Every structure is written in structure tokens, then in C-alpha cells.
Amino acid sequence: MKELQGPAIWIYNDAEFSEKDFQALINLGIGGKSRDENENDTRIGKFGLGFNCAFHITDLPSFVSGETIAFIDPHAKFLPATGYPPKKLKGIRMNFIEKEFKKRFPDQCYPYEAIEGCDFTKKFKGTLFRLPLRTKRSKISSQVLEINEILRLFYNVESNKEMLFLRNIESCSLYDMKEQGPNLIWQAKINNIDSCRNSRQKVIDNVDDAQIYQLDIEIIQCPQKVSEIWAICTGGHNKIKSEFKELKEFSQKERIKVN
């Protein structure tokens, strides 16, 4: 897998995979989303079908979570054959501590090491994806992206307001990983998350349960830092009058400007 040891996109999340999440990704085509409409799962989409978008840029995504490392190879091109008669694998998952993965495959560990404390000698706290950039056309996709194009795509995201509409993402950062260390390009985080976490995650179906809360977002676009304060209303849309009386009262109380 030498050709996949070059530039890559790294994605870190401080949550570990559940058994359901592992099965969803190893068995491509099954998203880690709830099939039960009555199940109140605020993690919907967290590790679901959206992961398939990774194949726009890579042919062999891999990730570490807890004590597990996994590789996904839909066309069975890169992973070694096993069994008799030998059969190429489309995905593999193993406990990297029990299987002494670092000792057996040091080259595959090298890219991960030193990122968010990952060293393959102990349980990794969180989930770390590695998406090596596709260097030539393949059966999965004809799209080949250079590093500069990837950076341009991420630069286009930095001024967006997705944080206002997400329920579980509390901070997001983009780093350019250099040999001398990570270089922060931009970051967005919610400063008052402890006071609004429950409100953000709650799904409002009953108009009588409408809620208004404040969101204090800090945005770092190196070397500049700016803060934005938003008043968010969820639910009860048909009860909001044209003059936004309740919103204005809340804004005046919290000293927020409303046009």
C-alpha cells in the first residue's frame, strides 16, 4: 500500500465507535442510522451513510477508534488475500493491541503516530480517520485531487454558518499538518455550549414547546479572531408573530441587536 502513504485528509472526533457503527462501515451500504422511527437518537448521521462521500477522494479509508483499527477496500485491491483458496478482502478490522499491529505493520502505523496521541500501544480516545488522496483514476472514481485543491475546498467552508443548524458539533478546526507540527488555519467553536447543549440537541415537534436560546460562536481565521452572538428559535414557527415580539424581548434582555 505504498502508493497510499502520501498526502491525506485526517478527521478526528472525540467520540468512539459503537459496535453498530463498526458494522455499518465494514459492511458498506449500511449506514449507522436508526431504522426505528420511534427511536430518539440524536446521533443520526454521525457515522452513517454520509461516510460514503469519503470515496470521492480516496480508495482506501482507514480509521482508529478505541483499540480497533479498520481498513475499507470496496474493490479488494489493496488488502492482502487470506484463507484457502486465497481471497482478497474488502474490509478488515482488528484489535491493534491484541494483534500487535504496530510490531507487524510499522509502515501502516507511521502516518497515524503522534496525531492526537495515537501510538498503538494503548486505547485511543476518540476516532481518527485517514483518507489518503487518490493519486490516479480508479474503478471507484476518476476524480484526482491535489493538496492545493483540497485546501481551497476547506477555505470555502470557513465562512459558512453550519454550526447554527447542527445539533452535536460543538467545535470544528482545520489544520495543515506539517513536519514541525500542526498549523491552525481556522476554527469555529461554541463558547457557551454548557448552557445550550440540551437545547441544541432537542428535537421540537410540539409548537407549545418552542424554545429560544443564545449561541456564542468564536471564529478564528488566523491571525484574526471574531465573535458572533445568535438568538436561535426552534419549534413553534407558526406562533412567531411578524413583529418578533418574544425574540426582541429576549434580545433586549441578553443585549443582542435585532434588525
From TrEMBL:
Xref: SUPFAM superfamilies: ATPase domain of HSP90 chaperone/DNA topoisomerase II/histidine kinase
Annotated ranges, domain Sacsin/Nov: 1-181
One GO MF term attached to the UniProt entry: Hsp70 protein binding
PANTHER family named in the record: SACSIN
Protein name as it appears in the record: Sacsin/Nov domain-containing protein
Organism: Rhizophagus irregularis (strain DAOM 181602 / DAOM 197198 / MUCL 43194)
